[in-house]
Amino acid sequence: MPKPTFFRLPDEKRERLIKAAYAEFTRAPFAEASISNIIKDAGIPRGSFYQYFEDKSDVFFYLLDQMRESTQAWMKKTIDTHHGDLYAALADVFDHVIDELVDGPYAPFYRNVFMYMDFHSAAKISPTPAPQPPHGKGELINYMVAHIDRSRLNVHSDAELHLLIHMVMGMFMQTVGYYYNRLSQGEQISVAELKRRLAQLLEWLQNGTVNKEERHD
Amino acid sequence: MPKPTFFRLPDEKRERLIKAAYAEFTRAPFAEASISNIIKDAGIPRGSFYQYFEDKSDVFFYLLDQMRESTQAWMKKTIDTHHGDLYAALADVFDHVIDELVDGPYAPFYRNVFMYMDFHSAAKISPTPAPQPPHGKGELINYMVAHIDRSRLNVHSDAELHLLIHMVMGMFMQTVGYYYNRLSQGEQISVAELKRRLAQLLEWLQNGTVNKEERHD
DNA sequence: TTCGTCATGTGACAACTTGTCATTATACGC
DNA sequence: GCGTATAATGACAAGTTGTCACATGACGAA
User: Fold this and answer.
1) For residue range A80-112, what is the model confidence (pLDDT) as tens digits?
2) Were both Cys, which of A16, A32, B160, B170 would link to A174 (CB 3.0–4.6 Å)?
């Protein structure tokens, strides 16, 4: 988390810093991004940066957190809209988020995020099946566990539902990561194809991949 | 790939280098590992390192490649043993690989690999659904597409089987990554629990997560 | 106004990186 | 014994990060 001083900054200065940080993490993936560039761009001295943030990842995850919050709100809303129908909500959200990731104003930033997101970092963002402080990463998954309609789901405990949600989220990130990888290799797949893949994965997850002997229909 | 000079090195020196590289990537995750430490440990001058390798990731992926090869061989063998039964083979391989990852001599190295493996790097290792050079990362997935028994699988094309395999592999890595994350947070889960989770995920993938209305049993 | 105190701003600095390159050493064929 | 290609070497430039002693505010009390 940014230090208190950061939040006491005059709006103009704070926004200048954030903008510079976005620019740098858009220019280069986390490992290659440099604090030097951010402060040069924002026009603040080096010492000040460390007055506001712990280090590079502190800014980075602050930016990510902002993105998470909006997505999280959208997800909750969608679950309600679909009266707790997990897969209907997921299909909806995936579509929406992908449009955001691919066409939205921050698309190139997200690209760096997804391609170079490791499991350690992902754990800081995506919902974690663990006791969580009231607000933050765990909030969404707890909301989901509480509001998902399980009557038609083959899960038998909170833990199992946690696992399922965790898996679906991971699957989503993986697939988006795959899309960006292809993009950066010039072997771009279309957004439609990306969505088709996700739909297929969801379908498998719902109905399984194994043919039941003699389906009665 | 290491440069030709590297492979012409006297065995003793080459092994010393590899050993030092393993030590460094065991000590620290990729981003924090330093070439300086490797050469200090191996006792070779800086310039020589660059005679053998392109850069840090060149050594790193060389090490990973060695691990991939052995796992790959095991996977193929297991598919044959199970006469192309995808899920039986996967269950087998997962169990074996996990024991390797958790108890094997390279466990701490793998830990760093999995926790800090991003999607971009993963693409270099895990099977990619794309036309592939005869040998390497794509070899396994092509072998699988060719040898998996599809008669009981709900897949209708090579592309779909690719996708399925891709997803299962990703799911595996994600779950192992999760295990290591918990480990590093002190909230360790047991190996048995890890295996149970994977088994559950495979089960869902086979039979689906949605209750068919009125199962006839 | 003058002082004290606490929060901020600042940039020079040490301690590391990495990749290069001119130079030296070695091996091998003739 | 000589020439040439291949390999070894370490000083170096150019960059990075985090720190710290000090300067500059701001604001209330005397």
Assistant:
1) 999 999 999 999 999 999 999 999 999 999 999
2) B170
Q: Are B22 and B100 found together in one domain?
A: no
Q: Judged by CB atoms within 8 Å, which residues 133-172 of A form the interface with B?
A: 152-155, 160, 163-164, 166-167, 170-171
B8 shares a domain with B29:
yes
Q: Answer whether A101's CB lies under 8 Å from A114's CB.
A: yes
Residue-wise pLDDT for B115-129, tens only, equals: 888 888 888 776 544
Quick check: A28 contacting B, CB < 8 Å? no
Interface check for B40 against chain A (CB to CB < 8 A): the answer is no
pTM over 0.85: yes
Output A210-215 pairs: Cβ under 8 A, ≥24 positions apart: A210/B87, A210/B152, A210/B153, A210/B154, A210/B206, A210/B207, A211/B152, A211/B153, A211/B154
Expressed as residue numbers, the domain containing A27 is 1-54
The reported pLDDT for the residue numbered A156 is: 95
